Amino acid sequence: MSRGVRFDAIGLSYYGYWHGTLHDVQTTLDDAASRYGKPVFLAETAYPFRLDSEDGLENIIDLTGELVPGYPATTAGQTRWMNDVASIVEAVPNGRGLGIFYWEATWTARTGNGWDPADPASGNGWENQALFGYDDRALPAMSWFGHR
């Protein structure tokens, strides 16, 4: 802002297992919206529905100790996480909480769908945080799209 750069909204990343508590993200979103007078949104977030890997590649989050306390790596835990995060964004004062973008909702473990587009066998360390289960069916957390 000191350089005169204009912007319409502020997007933040938030992964509870890396970036702090839900209270922390609420405080950060509220502060950014108030300080800059702009709408805010979460540009990326995700949460695991299980810890094991479908493709044999180690997942980014694969240990119970990496989880946010109170949110197990289950479909119910993932659903509750997304609903709680959505409620936080909706609670930003003055209607300045715009919404959430879920990071890699469809990144499932399939040949050719790995992290390296030049190597179809590269695997995927994120499939346990997708919004589709290992049976390729939409998970209950998908309901957060219609949160309110």
Short descriptors:
single chain, 148 residues, alpha/beta, three-stranded parallel beta sheet, globular
Question: What do you see in this structure?
Answer:
The protein has 148 residues and is α/β, with parallel strands linked by helices. The chain has one domain. It has 3 helices and 3 strands. The chain has a 3-stranded parallel sheet, with helices on one face. Strand 2, helix 3 and strand 3 form a beta-alpha-beta unit.
Secondary-structure content class: alpha/beta
- The number of E-state strands comes to 3
- Number of spatially distinct domains: 1
Radius of gyration: 17 Å
Query: Mean of the pLDDT scores?
Result: 93
Beta-strand content estimate? 5-15%
Give the biggest sheet: 3 strands, parallel
Spatial ordering of strands, largest sheet:
1-2-3
Treating each run of at least 4 consecutive H or I residues as one helix, how many helices?
3
Distance between the termini: 33 Å
Q: What is the string of helix and strand elements? A: EHHEHE
Parts with pLDDT < 50 across at least 5 consecutive residues: none
Helix content: 10-25%
What is the general shape? globular
